[in-house]
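Hi team,

As requested, here is the filled-out complex form for the magnesium ion run. I kept the field names the same as last time so the parser does not choke. Let me know if anything looks off before we queue the next batch.

— J.
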Amino acid sequence: MDNIELRGKSFKLYMPNEEILACIDGVAEKINRDYAGKQVMLLCVLNGAILFTAELMKRLNVECELASIKLTSYSGTQRMNEVHAATSLVGDVKGKNVIICEDIVDSGNSMEFLLGYLKDLGAADIKICTMLFKSQIFKKAFKVDYIGKSIPNVFILGFGLDYEEFGRNYKDIYIINEQ
Ligand code: IMP
Ligand code: MG
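And here is what came back:
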């Protein structure tokens, strides 16, 4: 499918599934190398990172646990500044090597909030792993450790990413057609 209509907006193909999976292969390879002989806890940021986390996990050969948390920051296609935890963390991160699995890092507000949250819970080490990274927007001081692909400041959906909570189910990623 090259074009989709969703909730009155039109989108066109941006990253086919094969390209997404190749990005995840690359990230998994790095994590396998960096964490060889260690244990990790993957923290899936719900709901967007569900598909990314699942594909990433399948490719890891280090001992890994899985935890999840839901954050909220976006409303439709508009970025909101206020980030909070919409669920408490499912899993225990105390003393663990945590790798946050995120669908996309944009302003970095969500990750800034989550880093503070995990430090307060006593995580031993925290790394950020994101499928996509809007590098032009990100101005934070902290590092994004593992990046599948950097993209410009565009609005996309599919492969976990939503528009008004819809569109997460597409296996490819689509970009919004500007009117
Ligand atoms: P940040 O806090 O500004 O870095 O935003 C991160 C969150 O906003 C991500 O976890 C996504 O859920 C959401 N987000 C950012 N950009 C997009 C997009 O282009 N499409 C859909 N969701 C997005
Ligand atoms: Mg997200």
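Two things worth flagging: The helical segments are 17-34, 50-58, 109-120. The radius of gyration is 16 Å.

Thanks,
J.
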